[in-house]
Specification:
Elements: E1 6-14, H1 39-51, E2 54-57, E3 63-67, E4 74-77, H2 79-88, H3 90-107, H4 127-145, H5 161-169, E5 174-177, E6 192-195, E7 201-206, H6 209-216, H7 224-232, E8 237-244, H8 255-266, E9 272-274, H9 277-283, H10 326-347, H11 349-352, H12 355-362, H13 370-380, H14 386-405, H15 410-413, H16 420-434, H17 440-451, H18 464-472, H19 478-491, E10 504-509, E11 512-517, E12 522-533, E13 536-542, E14 548-552, H20 558-577, H21 582-586, H22 591-605, H23 612-627, H24 634-646, H25 649-654, H26 656-661
Parallel strand pairs: 1-4, 1-8, 1-9, 5-7
Antiparallel strand pairs: 2-3, 6-7, 10-11, 11-12, 12-13, 13-14
Helix pairs in contact: 2-3, 4-5, 4-12, 7-8, 10-14, 10-17, 14-16, 17-18, 19-20, 20-23, 22-23, 22-24
């Protein structure tokens, strides 16, 4: 048997900011992620899926094997990302779980380690918030991987003494830090021991900063053999490399293939073992004390200032923008969180008993389905709470979830609040306020007052208050949007199940729709579908509280907008193109080109027939092209100009609707 002279640990931190609309519980289209629907979908295709099925090539460049690199790689996945993968990419999710099981068979310890539930900067959180985040992360890990985690990755590796004390108090044996976060790196890459202020011990692995840099930003992903040689020239013992998991395939295309090639190369080296931190720790307990540099992180050279001050980290030198918004934004959300916690302490005891114990326990089902959440609330609910009490208990727990996730680190990571990430943390704040009951108006006014002190880089908005009101605060209640989308879809023959949105259950009842929210609260909405043109419609919606709106297709929730648009396309295609389109479609001619040609021909026909049917055909074809994502073609506009110029005044007036639809100014 060959003695192990060197342990190699490659750790990947896999994480994406949560992106769902908290009112709908769904991610809506993110145009910047095109051609994919959103950034989660794009990065799953570019990284998470390839990492679990990486190609190994032979010397001739042909596929010699396909491997799940997570079976050899230490890794953590953010719990909110795993929640998305479980539903949106179940095969990839299953491969993640399987990799941990296989590594347990090989090493006796799984490659997966836990992470706090939300990606928050723990040194900036209170002791109670730290504890909840760690407990939720552990509970979610146990539910998914079927075992307790030995280690925990800290978001941005942000650390202070109290954070490590919480880890140790909750039974976490180790974490991984960057070399600049400790006064002296332990010898030979082996774990060091940190004695916490509470008198507890936690092991700390310090990754090799130089190698990690050259993996994430340098040349090593272009040459797996060179990467292996770098690992083997490190001091004997253990060498740990840690990077964002998205390095492999998203930041660097085909990076997962370099990772697979590295592990294949190392497997041929005598005395080298690819393993994980838990296996090394079990064999080599810490024998050297370490001293923290705290607070600190791996992505801010100023400690943790990136998440609370204008420190310059995250700035774009080509488009300089200030970060003076960071501190007042955190202050605004700190104020809101304090008010939300007060609501929990005031309302929860008669329903759930100890409010903080209930909140900590909620982590076991926070990422689970409605049935598991319902059982959790039912088991804790006081006998005299009643059905309304059960609904309010669920709302209070969801309110606290929002109070935690509105501190997701991504909201402060970049240099502008106006990005997707800044908008998302304020979406959570707005949703928490929606759940605050009688306190809603006061809390919204207080938040707006504080956002008025948050400066923007965007010249159109004097402060974040105006940006919040324009971009974040919904103009129409989610219940009305969902009801409108459901009614429109059903009007077009879409099955009831395909007409739903994740955050609601919609049922048809007599002359109204009954929407059941996640908490169990039921809202009634009256919806009436209007036909505004051959391929356009809108929906009039009203709720008993007096809210009402007329919503076009563009205002519907993303999922419903897609099914409504698809149904309209199919209906118009069949009605306006019919059998004549089947042969060219079968021959491979794109539908949008067929529709463009049909529109030009229909406009030409107006020279001889400007009756209602002929006008309706032109309008319908223009609507079809819009549904196909195409503009009115130049040829159709030119042809219409000629037709109308040759027509008399009476006929020209009859064509006014066509003129407007084809883009002509009134009176042109």
């Amino acid at each position: 048997m060959i003695a192990i002279t060197r342990s190699v640990i490659v750790h990947g931190h896999f994480y994406q900011p949560p992106r769902e609309d908290p009112r709908l519980d769904e991610i809506e289209t993110e145009a910047s992620a095109a051609p994919y629907h959103d950034w989660n979908e794009r990065i799953e295709r570019e990284c998470y899926r390839p990492v679990t099925a990486a190609r190994l090539l032979d010397p001739g460049g042909r596929i010699a094997g396909i491997v799940n690199t997570l079976e050899a790689m230490s890794f953590d996945f953010g719990p909110t990302l795993l929640e998305w993968l479980e539903h949106a990419a179940p095969d990839t999710y299953a491969a993640v779980l399987a990799a941990d099981a296989r590594s347990r068979e090989r090493l006796g310890f799984g490659n997966a380690i836990a992470a706090p539930y939300h990606h928050v900067i723990l040194p900036l959180a209170s002791r109670r918030e730290k504890t909840t985040e760690v407990r939720w992360g552990i509970a979610d890990f146990q539910r998914r991987f079927g075992r307790a985690p030995e280690g925990m990755w800290l978001p941005e590796t942000a650390v202070d003494p109290d954070t490590l004390d919480v880890l140790a108090a909750e039974g976490v044996a180790f974490t991984i830090l960057a070399p600049r976060q400790v006064r002296a790196v332990p010898r030979d890459g082996l774990p060091g021991r940190y004695r916490t202020p509470g008198g507890r011990d936690v092991a700390v692995f310090v990754y090799d900063g130089a190698i990690a840099h050259d993996v994430a930003f340098g040349p090593l992903l272009r040459d797996a053999r060179r990467w292996a040689e770098r690992l083997l020239t490190a001091p004997p013992g253990a060498v740990v490399v840690a990077t964002d998991g998205e390095t492999f395939g998203h930041h660097h295309r085909f990076g997962e293939m370099a990772l697979a090639a590295l592990f294949a190369d190392l497997a041929t080296r005598a005395g080298v073992r690819v393993e994980n931190c838990a296996a090394v720790l079990a064999r080599t307990p810490p024998c050297e004390d370490i001293e923290l540099i705290a607070p600190s992180s791996w992505s801010c050279e100023h400690g943790v200032e990136r998440w609370r001050s204008d420190c310059g980290c995250g700035g774009d030198p080509h488009h300089p923008r200030h970060q003076r918004w960071r501190a007042p934004l955190r202050a605004a959300l700190d104020w809101l969180a304090t008010e939300l916690h007060a609501a929990l302490e005031r309302e929860a005891p008669p329903l759930l008993g100890d409010p903080w114990d209930a909140r900590d326990g909620y982590g076991a089902v926070a990422g689970a389905g409605a049935a598991e959440v319902g059982r959790f609330v039912g088991e804790r609910l006081r006998p005299d709470a009643g059905p309304d009490g059960a609904i309010r208990a669920r709302e209070l727990l969801d309110l606290e979830c929002d109070a935690l996730r509105m501190f997701t680190s991504c909201g402060w990571f970049f240099d502008d609040i106006a990005g997707l990430e800044g908008r998302q943390v304020l979406r959570y704040a707005a949703h928490a306020i929606d759940l605050a009951g009688d306190e809603r108006s006061r809390l919204e006014a207080g938040l707006l007052d504080r956002l008025a002190r948050v400066p923007m880089n965007e010249p159109r908005f004097p402060s974040a208050r105006e940006w919040f009101e324009d971009t974040v605060r919904p103009r129409v209640a989610a219940t009305l949007r969902v009801a409108a989308g459901y009614a429109a879809a059903r009007q077009l023959g879409v099955p009831a199940q395909a007409s739903q949105v994740a955050g609601f259950d919609v049922r048809e009842a007599a002359d109204e729709l009954r929407l059941t929210e996640r908490s169990g609260r039921v809202v009634s909405v009256v919806a009436a579908v209007r036909t505004d043109g051959p391929g356009t419609l809108s929906v009039d919606v009203a709720s008993p509280d007096g809210a009402r709106a007329r919503l076009p297709v563009a205002a519907l929730p993303d999922r419903q907008r897609a099914v409504v648009g698809d149904a309209l396309r199919r209906s118009l295609t069949e009605r306006l193109l019919g059998p004549a389109a089947r042969e060219p479609l079968a021959a491979g001619r794109p539908l949008d080109r067929i529709a463009e040609d049909a529109l030009v021909a229909a406009v030409r026909g107006l020279a001889h027939d400007s009756g209602a049917d002929a006008v309706g055909r032109v309008l319908g074809l223009a609507d079809l092209l819009e549904l196909l994502g195409r503009h009115v073609p130049w040829e159709a506009q030119t042809m219409f100009h000629r037709v109308r110029a040759a027509a008399g005044p009476a006929r020209a007036a009859a064509l006014s609707a066509v003129a407007a639809r084809l883009g002509f100014a009134p009176g042109d």
